[in-house]
Amino acid sequence: MKARSHLDCCQAPALERLRVLDESTHDLEAVMRCTACGSYWFYRFLEYVNWAGGDDDLTSWFAPLTEAEGTNLLEAADRSAMDLSFLTTRASWMDDNEGVRRVPGLPGYR
Length: 110
Ligand SMILES: [Zn+2]
Fold this sequence. Notes:
The chain has about 110 residues and is mostly beta strands. It has one domain (about 15-100). The protein has one helix and six strands. The chain has one helix spanning about 65-75, and strands spanning about 15-25, 25-35, 40-50, 55-65, 90-95, 100-105. It has a six-stranded antiparallel beta sheet. A hairpin with an 8-residue loop joins β3 (about 40-50) and β4. The model has no long low-confidence stretch (mean pLDDT about 90). Bound molecules: zinc ion. The site of zinc ion has 7 residues, from loops.
């Protein structure tokens, strides 16, 4: 996977996908890890289909995880055993049609 310059775990981030937590046509959640520095990231991708016409809105988030959080998500039995509520207040990177920016948390994990 190519480096993503906005990720800030180290000088040359290169993420590999360790575990897909949930995947559907328009939605993906995964635990990622940087092969350069070992940092864990939570990745979420959402596609908002624009039914009114025009471009669909592709949005992705990268939320930094502590090593303990990353390990917990890798060891959890399944998606329903994971407590992801901490993502609500985790400062993250959001990337959509308007570009990359910092956000104070991820939507949808309350
Ligand atoms: Zn890194």
